[in-house]
Amino acid sequence: MAWDRNQMAARAAQELQDGWYVNLGIGIPTLVSNYIPEGITVTLQSENGMLGMGPFPYEGEEDPDMINAGKQTITELPQTAYFDSTQSFAMIRGGKIAMAILGGMEVSETGDLANWMVPGKLVKGMGGAMDLVAGVGRVVVVMDHTSKHGDSKVLKSCTLPLTGKAVVDRIITNMGVFDVVPGGLKLLECAEGVTEAELRAATEATIVN
């Protein structure tokens, strides 16, 4: 047993704080908007030029011109603002975004993140991840703990090209939650149905007490 994609997104939504401006990355992080806790108001920013993203549209109500950075159709809110990518990245680089919740291919025990390309495979572009990890106040990564072959993706050091060095604050996987601390990763909680022994066995990175 481990968390599924929606349970991971729901756990990541617990990281949100009232009044924050937050960027949600492509993949599992986009699901976080479905689980914003009651009483918490956050403004979602998309690096393609939108502040105040609404929820995903119902089937048949999609507007092909209304998309997020991951090319998914979304909706607008009464307070939604639009701008060009220059202003969008000025917000990110200027420290105006409190937190980014991003997907990951690999994370290291020192908080290095690799999430933008696999060498030899077709890449659409690096997107905004490199700016996000450098400019936002807090970076939370949501990803599967192991590859489809069972290899750990929470590593002593990343093997894929880096998005950023020492940029990750918290890691949420389908097996548990870690904080990046001096000396390695601190285990905060195990996913329902996952034992600490199973989690440690599936983790290459150093887990500190």
Concise account of the structure shown:
This protein is about 15% helix and about 25% strand. The chain has four helices and 13 strands.
What does this protein look like?
It is a single chain. The protein is of the alpha/beta class and 209 residues long. The protein has one domain (5-208): Glutaconate Coenzyme A-transferase (3-Layer(aba) Sandwich). The protein has 4 helices and 13 strands. It has helices spanning 5-13, 85-93, 129-135, 196-201, and strands at 21-24, 43-46, 50-53, 76-82, 99-103, 106-108, 113-114, 138-143, 154-155, 170-173, 176-181, 184-190, 207-208. The strands form 2 sheets. The protein has a 10-stranded mixed beta sheet with strand order 4-3-2-1-5-8-10-11-12-13, with helices on both faces. Strand 6 and strand 7 form a beta hairpin. The chain starts with a helix and ends with a strand. The relative contact order is 0.17.
Measured distance between first and last alpha carbons: 24 Å
CATH architecture: 3-Layer(aba) Sandwich
Helix content: 10-25%
Largest sheet descriptor: 10 strands, mixed
Number of domains: 1
Q: Can you say what the CATH homologous superfamily is?
A: Glutaconate Coenzyme A-transferase
- Indicate the CATH class: Alpha Beta
Structural category is alpha/beta
Please report which band the strand proportion falls in: under 5%, 5-15%, 15-25%, 25-35%, 35-45% or over 45%: 25-35%
Let me know the number of strands.
13
Oligomer description: single chain
